[in-house]
Amino acid sequence: MIMRHILVELGLTESEASAYEALIKLGKQPASELLRESGLSRPNLYYALGQLQKRGLVKENRRGKAVFEAVSPRELEQLGRSNVERAQETLDEFRQVLPGLLSQYTLSTDKPVVWFREGIQGLADAYEDIHQNAKDLLIIPSRWDRTSPELNKLIDQQVKRQHEKGIKVRVIADGAHTTPQDVTNWKKYGMLVRLVPQLPFSLPAQILIWNNTVALTTFRKELLTTMIQHEDVAESMRLIFDVLWHKTEIAGG
In CATH, what is the architecture of 2-76? Predict the structure, then answer.
């Protein structure tokens, strides 16, 4: 039963798993012997054997009385790998539509949607939602947001995508830790930049605000993105951003 459960988890049906397990135990056998071992009805057994042949897991010898034989269980490993690949593709596709689903859920229930993602994929998911849905974006960067080549590549790609999409971006940055090159790079892609001078403004987390969404990503200890989707939360953060914006200096004069 344990093996049958694993076979089902790999993608076989209950009937296919029972038939394959019977063949593994008995070796080459006619269907009449497999009926007793598998516990399947004759129609279910023949259907399962046919499906197993299509999967390349069973061979049939038709010389005289039909005899069935299981192929090496190593073929099941490839079946498992194929299932994992398909599951990953499905998960990737789901991640593409998840932000839209969450937005619709928020609008229909008026409840805030909060999700957490560890690692660089969480930030990539937030960036994808920005790319797909945002018309304008507010950013308060963290001084630790470029701590690895992988992060640098992701951020640089997103900056270019935002510019190509025509997303209007405003940035409030820490004047003490923002270099002239940082400002030049931001302005190159059409961002409006202002600096907070002479203040302890080094945030441990980056803040992104767009539509009805606020995303906070921590970089200093571990990469963790928290995304909150709610109109009141986003509006509150947008108002705070605007107050800071009017009290800061335009970068580069």
Answer: Orthogonal Bundle (1.10)
Residue closest to 162 by CA, chosen among 128, 117, 198, 111? 128
Domain boundaries, the chain: 2-76, 91-250
For residue 179, give every residue at least 6 positions away whose Cβ sits within 8 Å of its Cβ, in sequence order, or none: none
Architecture in CATH of 91-250: 2-Layer Sandwich (3.30)
CA 165 – CA 76 distance, rounded (Å): 45
Whether the model clears a pTM of 0.70, i.e. scores above it, the answer is no
pLDDT, mean of each 10-residue run, the chain (253 residues): 75 89 88 87 91 89 82 81 82 77 66 82 91 93 82 91 94 82 87 78 85 91 88 93 84 56
* Cα(177)–Cα(198) distance, integer angstroms: 11
Phi, psi of 103 (to 5 degrees): -65, -45
